[in-house]
Amino acid sequence: MHRPELFNSFFMGGFECSTHRRHDGRRLDLIESTGHGKFFAEDFGTMAGHGIRTVRDGLRWHLIEPTPGQFDWSSFLPMLHASRAAGVQPIWDLCHYGWPDDIDIWQPNFVDRFAKFAAAVAQVVKDETSEVPFYAAINEISYWAWAGGDTASFNPMARGRGTELKVQLVRASIAAIEAVRNVDPRARFVQIDPVINVVPKGPGDRGGAEGYRQAQFQAWDMLVGKIWPGLGGKPEYLDTIGVNYYSDNQWYFNGPTIERTDPAYKPFRELLAETHKRYGKPVLVAETGAEGDPRASWFKYVCDEVAAALEAGVPVEGICLYPVLDYPGWADDRHCATGLLGHPDADGKRVVHEPLGEELARQQARFARLMADDGLKTDAA
User: Fold this and answer.
1) CB neighbours of 369 closer than 8 A, spacing ≥ 6?
2) Do 190 and 240 contact (CB within 8 A), yes or no?
3) Are 126 and 91 contacting, i.e. CB atoms less than 8 angstroms apart?
4) pTM of the model
5) 227-241 tens-digit pLDDT
6) Alpha helices in the chain (DSSP H)
7) What's the CA gap between 355 and 25, in Å, rounded?
8) pLDDT tens digits, residue range 251-296?
């Protein structure tokens, strides 16, 4: 059985930190709109109170570098200090779908600017803390390439350019990793993308379904130099693999979502095992969650599957509830009730979603007991 030891806590909370632009030109700032930008100290304290000592959080590049080459750390330093005060270990997203307005993401300058930004962040973190830092350079390269480069769902609002965008984001990720390691060789990285399963509806769909399924690995393959070696990929650019997994991550090719009751549904443990076997790297469930009443039952399912994967020797290093706060929908500002915690009141206090809170406590106790007893098989079968 693998025993997780990479992070300060096995169970984590993820603060939504997207900063992309919508079709109407409006820039989203989920750190601000969830209240986390104002109540980060309270949020970190609440996480610690729930036994969550590792979190995913983000830097807002467009706020930090409003003028090329000039950095304003006022939106970040207080968060960094507050995380330390609360005893919470952050995994910092350096780029979560957004960038400063003066940059053209399609041009080489994007790669250069991002690398310089990453190096500046690394220097600040190194100067302010003594802990080994963790970063996610670019969040969800493959998903962003599809949403921003193929379907024009959000910036850069392109169609038919998904591969081009993926290559550009891989280049930028490699450059950022090198820049950060030049400043702080201790730095660790999590490379995050969704894991999926696509099933053919009929014999004629087999090739298309499998091609779509294999595409989930392209960004990671580029990072390690398995494909497109001219990008400069090397195995050392893939440190820990962050997999994002939700209830709609499996579907029929050109068809509907596969429900968990469907025989075609592949257990999550198998997706974890396949991803680890392909790269030989530790795995983090970097995002998982559900909206509304299924929150607790979905979390229990994921925990059961992770327990089974650990028993089989898959090195899963943690499970991150994401988003850990309710948030306003990207497109319409509707209240998305996905979090362990709701919207803040005037004092920064948030209502706990009790069913999820109770399930989290049960799973924390369960995993602590199972790991101590080396008895994962009992509850995970």
Assistant:
1) 375
2) yes
3) no
4) 0.96
5) 999 999 999 999 999
6) 30-33, 36-49, 61-64, 77-86, 108-128, 141-149, 162-183, 206-214, 218-224, 268-279, 295-311, 354-373, 376-380
7) 38
8) 999 999 999 999 999 999 999 999 999 999 999 999 999 999 999 9
Cα atoms found within 13 Å of the Cα of residue 335, Cβ hemisphere only = 6
How do residues 97-123 score in pLDDT, each as one tens digit? 999 999 999 999 999 999 999 999 999
- The predicted-structure confidence for 178-220, as pLDDT tens digits, reads as follows 999 999 999 999 999 999 999 999 999 999 999 999 999 999 9
- Geometric angle at alpha carbon 69, from 65 and 73, rounded to 5°: 40
* Burial (CB count <10 Å: 0-12, 13-18, 19+), residue 360: buried
Closest CA to 199 of 262, 272, 246: 262
CA 40 to centroid of chain Cα atoms: 19
Please report the sign of the dihedral spanned by the C-alpha atoms of residue 292, residue 294, residue 298, residue 300.
positive
Backbone φ and ψ of 31, nearest 5°: -60, -40
